[in-house]
Design a protein that fits this description.
single chain; about 140 residues; alpha+beta; 6 strands
Length: about 140
């Protein structure tokens, strides 16, 4: 991170559940995940849920406006067309979330990013049938790691 108080902000599309075929999700969506995890696999830090995970990240940027990151993920999912609905049908018990993730160095007054939820963006999100989640993490100084 650069020497600013701006959070490192990105959007993350997460498919999570039990019994997911992570390769099948990748092939069906035609998108390469940023990260995958099978339930029960050992992951260092940070701890992740003990379910199968298929994660696709947007590009990361130091900004307070997370709208661009959300739009980037929404656009990628829209381009996958009916493939997203096919994956949802294959795994009806799975969750499908778009999460705005922001990480910031410790600060007495951390800056939390926002998203401009216009009618158009809300309509696009509704068309994807996914949840929108906001997450904010304050990182430890590197000297403490």
């Amino acid at each position: 991170m650069a020497e600013t108080n701006l959070p490192e902000t990105k959007a993350r599309f997460i498919v999570s559940g039990n019994g997911l075929d992570l390769s099948e999700i990748e092939a069906t969506l035609g998108l390469k995940p940023t990260f995958t995890q099978k339930a029960g696999s050992r992951v260092a830090s940070p701890p992740l849920p003990r379910v199968d995970l298929w994660i696709l990240d947007s590009s990361s940027e130091e900004t307070t406006d997370g709208t661009k990151a959300i739009v980037e993920i929404v656009t990628l999912l829209e381009r996958s067309g009916s493939s997203l609905r096919k994956v949802m049908a294959m795994y009806p018990e799975a969750t499908f979330d778009i999460t705005l993730v922001a990480s910031s160095a410790p600060d007495p007054f951390p800056i939390v990013p926002y998203v401009k939820l216009t009618h158009q963006l809300l309509t696009r999100l509704a068309g994807l049938s996914v949840q929108l989640i906001f997450d904010f993490t304050i990182l430890r100084p590197e000297s403490d790691v």
